[in-house]
Structure formats: C-alpha cells, structure tokens
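Table S4 entry, Universal stress protein.
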Amino acid sequence: MIVEEGNPAEKLIDLAIREQCDLIVTGDAGPESLSRMIFGSTINRIVRGSTAPVLMVHDRPTRRYRDIVIATDFTEASLQALQTVAAFFPTSDLTLFHGYDIPYAGFIVDRDIESELRSIEKEITTKFMADARITPNVKSRTAVMIEHGSPDALLGDFIDEHSSDLTVIGSHGRGAIFDALIGSNAKRLVERLEGDLLIIRYIEGEQADR
C-alpha cells in the first residue's frame, strides 16, 4: 500500500511508471461517484497521461469476465485493444462492435445501396480479422457486429441486451473515440453500464505481448 501527497492523477501516473504496472484499476462507490470520477479532471488526466490500460470497476464482482464487447473503428488502436483484451482474458468471448451513422438514412430505400453497404462492411471486417497479429485462438472466440445508427446508443443497447460483463474502448488519448467517451452522449452510456469499463491507450509501435 502506497500513500502519497499531491495531485492524484500525476501521482498515480508516476507510480504506474515507476512500478511498471500493466493495469490501473479504479473502484466506484456508486453511480454518482462513477460519473464524477470518469468525467472529472482526475480520470481524464489518468487516461490521457498513462500508457497502462485503465479499468473502471462499476459493479461488485460475482464472476469472471465471460462476455466482453470491444468498441471498434477497425484502426490500429482497435487492433491493439483486441490483442490486449485477448491476452488479459484468454478464455472470454469477445465481440467487436462497430456502430456508425448513415447520412440521410431515413431517405435510403434502395436495396442496392443497402447491399453495397453490407458488402463494404464485410470487406472491412475480413481485412481486419485477416491481420496476422490476430492469432487463430483469438479469431475463434471473436465475433464482429456492425450496426447503423448513433454509435453510443447502439453500443448501450447491445450491452443491455447481451448483459456484457466488460466494455472496452481503445483510445489514442485524443481523437474521435476518446472524445466520444468523454462527450455528453457517452456520459449517458457509462451511467447505464451494467458491467465494467476498460480503456486501453493506443501506443504507436507497441504490440500486446503479455
């Protein structure tokens, strides 16, 4: 047990570096506390400043993480998140979830356009999963789900429907995914989470090998 005085985020980041920690875990005393912790300056600075993944425990544990959903945009950050999660939890079922808005979706009734979208989605999924860094074992326990609509709402609905134990987001510490997490829409998502939340910071040139 280590007790230090100073800025909580800075001290925790320094400690994680000094002790070469593989994971930072934060607890929660209640929904209001979780909301303040995630969207307050402390956790914001930790996620932006730490290279170690940050696990925010929302619920009292009753079992291992059996079903894990990973928000993906099929980038290197998403691939690194998949590798890290697969290494942390070698027996869990994994779902890569991608949601995206289609401009003027309400006006699209052309079956050819819908078929073309599905074809593009399949191509992107196949290319991503064909990466040599994804082992056969990980491929065998990873499903891919792509939906049309508001990404945060779709992800929240998917988590509720499947009672996912853990939600994972791969982040550059900047950019669209991180901003979506910290944004007001994602605040509602986090508040309704039934399971825990893991944020994995993307480190350029690094491959998960734990």
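Residues 182-186 have pLDDT under 50 and may be disordered.
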